[in-house]
């Protein structure tokens, strides 16, 4: 996973796209490496272009197949991603056609394609000449920007809401902040934003939230170093109120890193007996430690496999458990467009098995009368309502504690779809141990 020797903005962008689509790397990892070589402005451009390619990939690939007679192979494969970037710049960005062609052709040479510069230049010129940017497919799957398997699952699950769901998945995500009430009140933080000239909005359902209307570097916002706020989507901010931890209780946050929900629980509930934050990845727990330190709060962090209860549980039951289960992350595709290409249909069944195993094993660590809040950032019913419905039918000591009116054993919990009240896609279900 080596970057090109020569620093070139478009070559590095194509390299990021190649790492995700061909090597299966996460965009977060690839972007961090590439952006470190560029100014803040160029790093932002790099991310915008790469994410744009991921959102429009099916259409870009159709144009590629029309203009490239034979697929490129081996070490030259990355040059196809240079071409995809060139198409995206011409069709969907504010980059001028001339700059898109000239700079993209130069990037091909940086990536080892000196002998193919003529071919790439001809392809990009033909794209202009044939006005392909105006010839967009009317196939709904292509227009959705999603892989076929995911489109079909969504169409089956949400036939009446499909259009709005797809629109929400393809809109750029807004920035939500959660004010740390231990350090600053929401009204005081709003005053600080106003004094800094930063526009914002509030949400009736989120008493700790501020929704930014201006794109501003997070570290330059008022009170960042002092721990006045965290970045957390509005849907994720619902977890702590739904769990409703009380003073004196022992709480487990399972699959907790990077710690946003743990922090929110601690910020809104003084006097907890203990909060254990469990996660299987040490690197993520390290990041969680840094986040909690900035917010000036403390949790007991445990690195362990949540499903293997005997390896980490001390036998003392928990009053409440938040299970933020591993999932397909289909609800946050608007925030992480690469997910649509990293996730495969075959992954879903394995995730279902893992989710249910963790849920069933954690259940015995919950005391009678205790509450378990099941959460995912997925919009697929097989990971959400189907899991909770099955659990309720198979566990006689579990009962549904409704979050909203109309919940049934067959349709439990609350499903939030991407874009709903400007939130990410999320699912919550609450269970009481009788």
UniProtKB/TrEMBL annotation:
Transmembrane segments: none annotated. Residues 165-434 form the SAM-dependent MTase RsmB/NOP-type domain. The active site is at residue 377. InterPro entries: MeTrfase_RsmB-F_NOP2_cat (IPR049560), MeTrfase_RsmB-F_NOP2_dom (IPR001678), NusB-like_sf (IPR035926), NusB_RsmB_TIM44 (IPR006027), RCMT (IPR023267), rRNA_ssu_MeTfrase_B (IPR004573), RsmB-like_ferredoxin (IPR054728), RsmB/NOL1/NOP2-like_CS (IPR018314). It is found in: Cytoplasm. Keywords: Cytoplasm, Methyltransferase, RNA-binding, rRNA processing, S-adenosyl-L-methionine, Transferase. SUPFAM superfamilies: NusB-like, S-adenosyl-L-methionine-dependent methyltransferases. S-adenosyl-L-methionine binds at residues 255-261, 279, 305, 324. GO terms for molecular function: RNA binding; rRNA (cytosine-C5-)-methyltransferase activity. It catalyses: cytidine(967) in 16S rRNA + S-adenosyl-L-methionine = 5-methylcytidine(967) in 16S rRNA + S-adenosyl-L-homocysteine + H(+). Its main location: cytoplasm. One of its GO terms (biological process) is regulation of DNA-templated transcription. Its EC number is 2.1.1.176. GO terms for cellular component: cytosol. Belongs to the class I-like SAM-binding methyltransferase superfamily. RsmB/NOP family. NCBIfam families: PRK10901.1, PRK14902.1, rsmB. Specifically methylates the cytosine at position 967 (m5C967) of 16S rRNA. This is 16S rRNA (cytosine(967)-C(5))-methyltransferase.
